[in-house]
């Protein structure tokens, strides 16, 4: 946490002690600072359209600066850093390091003091942006001024009154708002003045609205305001829910017009994936009131309006402190059948066992039916499964890989959807996704997919993300049948004909069965082993998919989840090879290493990276690592992207070095610096 925090040190201004970024890099292009310096000579913009005239001719706008904004001290970003410093202090305290906890607590307090001195407007009684260097104060309410309170920063009564003042129809409130810039600001635009997706001088931004709702919830829960009440939160939450619709169905895009029911930033095959804006956090934590804590109590402070239409709801299998919780609100006890436990009111279950009941939907402070520390230890002891088929370097890296005999090429030359799309680590279900493979126009009623790994791995299941568009008139549907085989001996480990439980546009996990235990001619039954399938060890899986009549098949991604092998030996071929990157958006032009003979050979500029490398006891400390290799050459070994240690090879053998390792998983990167070294593995010593 500390190492990651310190990576932001390059953005600190030594004179103010505050962090600065251009608004674009804080995800807010076209925001107030850009307009205040984007005019002639870095003055305030006067007219949006200057027709390309120079400053002498009455123009002179710098549209790139208006878009990106200047380096700016932002209350949002500095609040993040205060909160992160406090989090480090809390974790240090939990670990028993009181001195470190005090250091980071003091740093957080000092940073907050600097924020108050420089980023708070006494005139507005509100947090504002300040341009780095010139210290130009961007006087105007932006929605990011509500961010600090969400992070428990700036919570005194004076600042709370300032938050209340912006909650009017003259300032931030609209039918589909709040607006990102208050409406009485001269730079506010109700309708975008550019086709750029995101114009944050007024448009409604789902992400900022989510943070804003978090602030409202904190205030409303504690009864600190006559303006920001539970009823007001419910009003704003309902408004946000109405905003997140399109054509009558739930939908979240990039930006929304603040006064009309229309998305203003909405691009096909792009915006469909914008449900990242903590909407569900606002439902669970704020509306239903589940407030996480570090102790053995379960706390709820619902903001559901009393006597409302919310006469029932259920949250099922909510992960909490190593347990799965189910929360059931059934006002009259008639809506849900809980196995005969049908009591009117609010019922809380842990792993299916009732541990709290009350007749009303109100605050809860109940003792959990388990010891949190024990539950955490149990959870930590569980294996951390990894998708061993994912390969972000495809198609240039050798393993793991997916291949097929068919590729859709309507032009007769270019393969639009190659097989490597199925293991590139990207998964989405756009209207017409470009990250899928399809057997469209194939000559055969079935397709065979070959999955190959660099070495045999223990595997018990396979997951297929099946794309379909038949419900909207397309020709892609779930496969009619599925067969998975161990490719070495062609032994069937899963068979579905028909594949009746295939779910379109979702991840379908198929558990393997023992080839010797076929349950019937058309199906296999997974081995009953706590929900896990039969385990085989192989470097080759073969997946056969048969099409439904009149339809084709498309797969967005295939995943193979396996328990990682936690040392002390870590095979180099399990690592990620580096790629020569060039061109727009990181287009790879080739690999700088290759898989061969149970390891990797590194070419000029090559590297291989191994993740989740642990000490034998899992604790931090200075440890010995043996780099097993061959060939002639020199490599540098780096742990957690920190200092490098040089290792020379002159033929077969291994070289041992001492490195500092963190508790838990570490990242070891091996860089070629000379020759063509071969890396077999690394071994972590005592």
UniProtKB/TrEMBL annotation:
It comes from Hortaea werneckii (Black yeast). Residues 1-277 form the Mannosylglycerate hydrolase MGH1-like glycoside hydrolase domain. It holds the Pfam family MGH1-like_GH. GO terms for biological process: carbohydrate metabolic process. Coiled coil: none annotated. One of its GO terms (molecular function) is catalytic activity. This is Mannosylglycerate hydrolase MGH1-like glycoside hydrolase domain-containing protein. It comes from the Eukaryota. Signal peptide: none annotated. InterPro entries: 6-hairpin_glycosidase_sf, 6hp_glycosidase-like_sf, MGH1-like_GH.
């Amino acid at each position: 946490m500390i190492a990651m925090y310190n990576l932001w040190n390059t953005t600190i201004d030594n004179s103010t002690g505050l962090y600065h970024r251009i608004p674009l890099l804080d995800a807010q292009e076209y925001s107030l600072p850009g307009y205040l310096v984007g005019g002639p000579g870095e003055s305030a913009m006067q007219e949006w359209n200057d027709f390309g005239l120079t400053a002498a001719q009455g123009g002179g706008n710098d549209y790139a600066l208006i878009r990106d904004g200047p380096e700016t001290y932002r209350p949002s970003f500095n609040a993040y850093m205060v909160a992160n410093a406090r989090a480090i202090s809390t974790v240090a305290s939990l670990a028993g390091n009181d001195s470190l906890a005090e250091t980071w607590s003091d740093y957080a307090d000092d940073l907050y003091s600097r924020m108050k001195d420089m980023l708070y407007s006494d005139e507005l009684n509100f947090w504002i942006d300040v341009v780095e260097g010139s210290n130009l104060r961007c006087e105007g309410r932006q929605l990011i001024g509500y961010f600090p309170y969400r992070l428990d920063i700036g919570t005194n009564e004076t600042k709370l009154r300032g938050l209340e003042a912006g909650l009017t129809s003259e300032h931030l409130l609209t039918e589909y708002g709040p607006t990102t810039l208050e409406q009485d600001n001269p730079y506010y635009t109700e309708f975008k003045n550019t086709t750029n997706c995101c114009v944050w001088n007024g448009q409604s931004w789902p992400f900022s609205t989510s943070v804003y709702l978090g602030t409202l919830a904190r205030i409303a829960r504690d009864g600190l305001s006559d303006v920001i009440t539970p009823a007001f939160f419910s009003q704003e939450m309902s408004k946000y829910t109405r905003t997140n619709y399109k054509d009558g169905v739930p939908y979240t895009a990039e930006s929304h017009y603040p006064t009309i029911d229309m998305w203003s930033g909405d691009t096909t095959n792009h915006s469909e994936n914008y449900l990242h804006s903590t909407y569900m956090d606002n439902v669970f934590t704020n509306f239903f009131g589940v407030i996480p804590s570090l102790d053995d109590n379960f706390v709820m402070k619902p903001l559901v309006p009393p006597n409302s239409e919310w006469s029932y709801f259920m949250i099922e299998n909510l992960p909490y402190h190593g347990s799965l919780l189910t929360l059931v609100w059934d006002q009259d006890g008639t809506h849900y059948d809980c196995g005969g436990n049908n009591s009117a009111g609010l019922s809380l279950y842990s792993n299916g066992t009732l541990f709290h009941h009350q007749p009303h939907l109100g605050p809860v402070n109940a003792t959990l039916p388990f010891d949190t520390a024990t539950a955490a230890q149990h959870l930590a002891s569980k294996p951390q499964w990894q998708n061993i088929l994912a390969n972000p370097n495809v198609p240039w890296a050798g393993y793991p890989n997916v291949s097929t005999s068919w590729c859709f090429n309507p032009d007769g030359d270019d393969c639009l959807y190659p097989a490597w799309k199925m293991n590139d680590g990207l998964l989405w279900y756009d209207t017409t996704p470009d990250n899928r493979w399809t057997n469209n126009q194939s000559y055969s009623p079935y397709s065979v997919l070959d999955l190959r790994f660099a070495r045999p791995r223990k595997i018990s299941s396979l997951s297929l993300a099946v794309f379909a568009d038949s419900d909207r008139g397309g020709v892609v549907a779930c496969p009619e049948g599925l067969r998975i085989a161990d490719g070495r001996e062609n032994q069937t480990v899963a068979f579905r004909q028909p594949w009746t439980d295939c779910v379109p546009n979702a991840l379908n996990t198929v558990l393997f069965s023992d080839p010797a235990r076929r349950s019937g001619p058309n199906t296999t039954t997974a081995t009953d082993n706590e929900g896990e399938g039969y385990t085989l060890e192989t470097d080759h899986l073969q997946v056969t998919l048969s099409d439904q009549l009149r339809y084709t098949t498309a797969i967005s991604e295939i995943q193979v989840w396996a328990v990682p092998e936690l040392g002390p030996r870590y095979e180099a071929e399990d690592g990620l090879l580096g790629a020569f990157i060039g061109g727009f958006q990181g287009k790879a032009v080739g690999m700088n290493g290759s898989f061969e003979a149970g390891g990797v050979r590194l070419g000029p500029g090559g590297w291989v990276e191994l993740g989740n490398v642990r000490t034998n006891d899992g604790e931090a400390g200075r440890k010995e690592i043996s780099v097993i290799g061959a060939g002639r050459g020199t490599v540098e070994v780096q742990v957690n992207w920190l200092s490098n240690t040089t290792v020379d090879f002159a033929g077969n053998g291994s070289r041992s070095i001492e490195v500092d390792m963190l508790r838990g998983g570490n990242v070891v990167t091996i860089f070629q610096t000379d020759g063509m070294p071969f890396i077999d593995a690394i071994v972590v010593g005592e």
